[in-house]
Amino acid sequence: MAHAYSRAPSYARDASSVAEVPVGGPGAEPRMVRRPAAGERVCPGTALVTGASSGIGAAVARRLAADGWHLVLNGRDPQRLAQVADATSAALFPADLSRPGAEGRLADFALDAAGGRVDLLVAGAGVGWAGDFATMPPGSIDTLFDVDVLPAMHLVRRLLPGMVEAGAGRVVLIGSVAGMLAVRQEAVYSAAKAALAAFADALRYELYGTGVGVSHVVPAVVDTPFFDRRGMPYVRSHPRPVPAEKVAEAVSAAVTRGRDEIYVPGWLRLPVRIRGAAPAVYRRLAARFG
């Protein structure tokens, strides 16, 4: 059952279920951490998922719930968000993250619900716009960065200190192949997702040795309402749209296996590698064939 603006359930501790161990690397100060009882299913921790009211974010929320995570879910549509969380013990924070200060209020709510530390952030909120850049409304340029880029960065900034202090945690950024290759008639969306890709790499280098991981999940075309909302349907025959559940599987794999970058589908690595190895050739082909 979903609870709007409610604290997450706490997990019982007793003398037999805690141990004093060093957390955060050699020389770290010992802290009390929970040790599971025999046969007990352990909750991996608390995960905050943004963009969870539909599409990729909703599929990720369902997958993480199945993996045993306690969830804090954010989305713009309260009714759809409640439906996504109906079968889980999620705490809900419906909000449009493009509104001033919304990501700060979400971070405070998530930290309170998680008892002070969020273990996993999946930044899945996103919008698109398609068409010739010369005809793009100026306000839409701002909206794409206000939704696709800035909230993710602000949330990471708020939640990261607790992860670093604990010596554990993961940030998952949902990118796009548009950010890796650039796509015609999606100039600003491509730029926004490219910003997330660069942010993921730079942050990963900065966090090396802290125990905190950064994953960049890169889907191509996903069968969600995204294309209807961006103002232009997807009409290409290739690549074919994949179910949102495939991206959710990639997120789960990134978390459980500590993967830095996952493409959905996996063959997307090939054009990205070609562009990296022979950028001039790739650009000529992309300009001709789109």
Could you explain the architecture of this structure?
- This protein is an alpha/beta fold and about 290 residues long.
- Helix content is about 40%, strand content about 20%.
- The protein has 11 helices and 12 strands.
- The chain has an 8-stranded parallel β-sheet with strand order 1-6-5-4-7-8-9-12, sandwiched between helices.
- Helix 10 packs across helix 11 (about 280-290).
- The longest helix has 20 residues, at about 185-205.
**End-to-end C-alpha gap:** 46 Å
The residue fraction in helices comes out at: 40-55%
Uncertain runs with pLDDT below 50, 5 residues or more?
A: 1-41
Strand content: 15-25%
Order of helices and strands: EEEEHEHEHEHHEHHEEHEHEHH
Oligomer: single chain
Structural class: alpha/beta
Shape: globular
Q: Mean pLDDT score, rounded?
A: 82
Radius of gyration: 20 Å
Q: What kind of sheet is the major sheet?
A: 8 strands, parallel
Would you kindly provide a brief summary of this structure?
This protein has helices spanning 55-66, 78-84, 102-113, 138-148, 150-166, 177-181, 187-206, 226-229, 244-257, 269-277, 279-289; strands at 3-4, 18-22, 30-34, 46-49, 70-75, 91-94, 120-123, 169-174, 212-219, 222-223, 242-243, 261-264.
Provide tags for this entry:
disordered N terminus; two-stranded antiparallel ribbon; alpha/beta; 18% strand; 290 residues; eight-stranded parallel beta sheet
